Amino acid sequence: MKKHSLSLVILSCIFLLFSCGEKPTDESETIPKLKQENKTPIQKAEKQSDESIKLGVAGAHSGDLASYGLPTVNAARLVVNKINQNGGVLGKQVELLVEDDVCKPEVAGNTATKLISDGVDVVLGHICSGATKSAMGIYKDAGIIAMSPSATNPDLTLSGEYPNFLRTIAHDAVQAKLQVKFATEVLKVKKIVILHDKGDYGKGQAELAQKYFTAAGIEVALFEGVTPGAVDYSAIVMKVRRIKPELVVWGGYHPEASKIVTLMRKKKMDTLFMGSDGIKDDTFIKVAGKYAEGVFATGPMDVSGNELAIAAKKEHQNVYGTDPGAFFDAAYAATLALLNAIEKAGDTDYDAVMKALKSEYVETPLGKISFDKNGDATGIGFSVYRIQDGAFVEQK
């Protein structure tokens, strides 16, 4: 039996979470190397002890978007507690280093620097695409792998700029194509308006939607950004009202979307409204209240029937007394994937861990996943949901 395989088998039998080494059929054998490009990277802190594996958890843990980040912290804690109770990874306990970036790019760089200085081995995060982009170059220069459960900007994996980045959610090009397919084939719309929050995630997603809607022959009567955090969006709502589109497509997060939808409905506008995974969170429903009814949103596929997803949800309910929030399943999967890869690699070495991530499958609440040559998880995707009776209902 190979080194470290026994402990992995024990974990597999106890948790039914880690895979037993099955190889993907379409893997790239080439693992991208980090390029320093004459930069002076932040030095990873010397460990005072070699007795722990340090897993960083970075994201919005406070502020308006905390409902997106806190479920990731909870997921990491549940997985790590379970693994530690059964011997840890490579015979070592896993230590969580949790840092808040408030989903702001100007904060995320400092968050990444702090984690590196504290000696982090791998990072779960960040949550928002803009914050992720801000941090990822810093991790790259330090030789740190980071995996996000929620950052969907395509460039994070497709540009080649961040070979150290992976994610357990599909990217926005996949999401935008699904929105167009549903809007044209199911909703039968001919004229739309696209609004966005000017951010890396929101604007990027909106631009992709504009591209694919236009290619499908749909009239995009207005493409406009709004100022995040504004108190009143009456001006843009009145502009939309004058245009009379059949559908408003939103690129961005729930705080602005809830205000816009509420204003539209108060002004007796019955225009259809569709957002992406940035609004597929119960917080949107709580804030918009009755005005959220009928809103469409794309988001990660429903995995509520997956046995590991059912078990993970039950764990969360037992420990925290509530149902898990946004991106919980993807975060749980990412934690499993990172720690499984370290176990498989027999070390926390960058190249060894990256090779394991891209050459092994792992059983997760999302199903059996691995990662392609770009760092995108295989076997996952998006679904369309509609808010009905105060809950997101998947549209078949």
TrEMBL record:
CDD domains: PBP1_ABC_LIVBP-like. Gene3D superfamilies: 3.40.50.2300. It comes from the Bacteria. SUPFAM superfamilies: Periplasmic binding protein-like I. Keywords: Amino-acid transport, Signal, Transport. Residues 52-388 form the Leucine-binding protein domain. Belongs to the leucine-binding protein family. This is Branched-chain amino acid transport system substrate-binding protein. It comes from Desulfobacula phenolica. The lineage of its organism: Bacteria, Pseudomonadati, Thermodesulfobacteriota, Desulfobacteria, Desulfobacterales.
